[in-house]
Design brief:
This protein is an alpha+beta fold. The chain is built from twelve helices and 19 strands. The protein has a domain at 12-85 and 115-189 and 283-369 and 404-409: FAD/NAD(P)-binding domain, CATH 3.50.50. Strands 1, 2, 8, 9, 10, 11, 17 and 18 form an eight-stranded mixed β-sheet that branches. It has an eight-stranded mixed β-sheet with strand order 6-5-13-14-15-12-16-19. A three-stranded antiparallel β-sheet has the order 3-7-4. The structure holds flavin-adenine dinucleotide.
Length: 424
Amino acid sequence: MNVIEQNITDAIWDVVVVGGGMVGATVALGLGQQGMKVLLLERQAVDTAWSEERPYQVRVSALTRASEKILRNLGAWRGITSRRCHAFSAMHVWDDLSSGEIHFSAQEMGEPNLGYTVENEVIQAALWEQVEACDSIQLLLNPTIKALRLEGGKAWLDVEGVGDIQTELLVGADGALSQIRQLAYIGLDTHDYEQCAVVGCVKTELPTEDTCWQRYTKDGPFAYLSMGEHLSSIAWYLPTEKMQWALNLSDQAFALEISKASDYRLGSVVEVGERAAFPLTRRHAEHYVKSNLALVGDAAHTIHPQAGQGVNLGLLDAAALIETVLSARLAGKSWGRYSVLRKYERWRRGDNAIVQRSMEAFDWLFKQDSGLKTTFRKGFLPLANRLTPLKNWLMGQALNGRESLPALASLKRSKFTRLDSGKN
Ligand SMILES: Cc1cc2nc3c(=O)[nH]c(=O)nc-3n(C[C@H](O)[C@H](O)[C@H](O)COP(=O)(O)OP(=O)(O)OC[C@H]3O[C@@H](n4cnc5c(N)ncnc54)[C@H](O)[C@@H]3O)c2cc1C
């Protein structure tokens, strides 16, 4: 295994990635597989061992087709399908207040499915399997980062017990509370949604029909994400003050509340697994880049998870950064230069802001009932369902079929051929 604990201060690393979550591991892999010398720092070792008996995990992501493509191109997709994942073929959204509803199906889009529900640990394990198999990537586990300097055309990271690590490009992929973002003095625009998401896996009386069901109520949305015939991952959005109440309910009472929140769309909930709750905050870094530094994933932005876009946007950041760095290297330029990294920032920041704002517009529209808003809300879903261009646009967003997709995520063949021999 390529874990190192010493002599890493002698080298100048092509890239140092802090955070080996789904997004950071993707950056490390995309660059490592192209022969770049990458050091990946992660707080916790990831267990890549797998057993069918493993209980379903609380954290689940709905991956878009674009994310699938990125993971396929990096050779990590087979590690997902060989563990556990579920393709969903439809989405059904309806509103508590009106009879409005909208239905998307893979069939009408001419697609085999609309995406996949996958446990986060499965995605991370599949990526780490590839990281461990890549000779260009070295791992440093459980680092204590003391300071960061950006000077002399390099980033310098002072790690306790190790010393100064120097690199052409430092990537902050260390999540929503990013230490790298803070050490780089990058400001943050934040907004408290005053909502929490209660998540977990449940079994329902009626089959899921491979569909993601989402109901809008005035407290917030409720969603069943299909994970199997009778199995769903739930996302139940509640005002933050109800978080402890939801966590403290007995399993029986929780099952009843979930059945009610879904308006019994899949009958009663008959079994519940472990649950967890997360307060929700929108965050957007004022800058994604500085000279020799770039932020990706939750370190750069967090978003309301109602449309399941967070990690999908993060994977697009990763793919765009990989492409920017590799293109600069190909052109013989330094990939840590501000002018190079700005291309990545321009590519991704606006796109992420649009998705953040559209989630907020949905949240605003469906949260309260008042006059004009109620009238508009009553008309929106039926209209969107009937109006083919609007429906196709909404669907395109969900599938991540944007114009400016990075090569790794494009549905065409990646323009960067892998240097290692792995197949996807
Ligand atoms: C309730 C909920 C539901 C969601 N559902 C979806 C969904 O359906 N689809 C979707 O696309 N997104 C979803 N998201 C969002 C998604 O979970 C996040 O966007 C995603 O986990 C971000 O990945 P990341 O790798 O950027 O950050 P993280 O997953 O936070 O990973 C950061 C990594 O950095 C490590 N780290 C942190 N600090 C340091 C340090 N100082 N040194 C070394 N390592 C460090 C951590 O150990 C961790 O491994 C959801 C979010 C929530 C809250």
